[in-house]
Amino acid sequence: MPNVGGYCILKVMEKEKIKKIDSCFCPSRRAFDEMEKNGKKEKKRVFVMMSGGVDSSVAAGLLKKAGYDVLGVHLICWDEESFGCSAGEDRRDAERVAVILDIPFEVWDLKKEYKKKVFDYMISEYKKGRVPNPDVMCNKKIKFGIFFKEAMRRGADYVATGHYARVECELKIGNGKFKGKKKEVFKLIEGKDKDKDQSYFLWTLGQKELSKTIFPLGKMLKSEVRREAKKMKLLNAEKKDSQGLCFIGKVDFQDFLRKKIKEKEGVIKDIKGKIIGKHKGSFYYSIGQRKNIGLLGGSEEPFYVLKKDLKKNELIVGKRNSKEAYFKKVVLKDINFIEEGVVDKLKRGKEKIWAKIRYRGEKLPVKLKKEKGKWVICFEKKAEFISVGQSAVFYLTGGELIGGGVFDRVLT
Q: How many alpha carbons lie under 13 Å from residue 359 in its C-beta half-sphere?
């Protein structure tokens, strides 16, 4: 058996078949075993984060149906009437669903915490010319930070969300000085619905969070979720998916930023240095952006933002086939590996690693290595339009997410 960080993977066998310890409804088979212990039913308590959307609503309904003691919690993280956000409507929808499901429901006001830990961080990053991912930070600091900790403090056995992702558990038996010791290792896996998979936003989680988290929709397609919502007679069964900022909703993002970062007019240059337009602040733009750049005159081919010079307040734009649009090596920061043994696997170089550099992007074959104490991602083929501040998320061939990091500095 392979040795990973002092432990070897033990597949649980039953009648000569591999028995997966999966978490469609629980992170470990142990949860069901405990519920039936000594023939006495003991309901496990789950705090379900209910956004008001169909996904978290169905998640709550499925968990109640499975026999859990469910508490629905809606988080208010933004002023419900500002920037045209839909937070107020979402709260009312979540409350209505709780009534239909007949589960207790609470509203937690986390506006101050969200502003400090997510919003202020996001604005600070944009001012530095970086392009942060607020949804990743929201998961880390709010959903699996404050919400998770408070749920555990109040006696929850698990938390649950409507994310399209899965958790699987493997039992490992120690080797060497760990010989005979058993250890559960939790793995984060892509959701069954590849179009809706949200594992990309969960790369900051660790063993502590995954061992206490349930993703009821991990093995479902979106179409199945909507059918289930109709069976449950939920009023939001046909509600459109949220497309905006985490907990804020859909807004005109550049207009949103302008209300927080003062405009500063500058010039737009092509890769030869010719001025071809004007902008209202280089920090408003992301690498690879094509629309609403502010070019003078028309062009048969679209131009993309290739570089931002904050000191000169200039944007450099070019065609998609420009060599300046492609990168081979990038330094990462804030690296997180979900399992300790992953680093040993990387050192041996036996696992094929894939990276997603944007949520809707394809997986790219990469290598991860340490250079001068920093983790560096090396693309087998040059990657297109890398924005410093965005997330690089690492997967194995089978869909297991092993970790991630933040693009910090482009090398080549």
A: 13
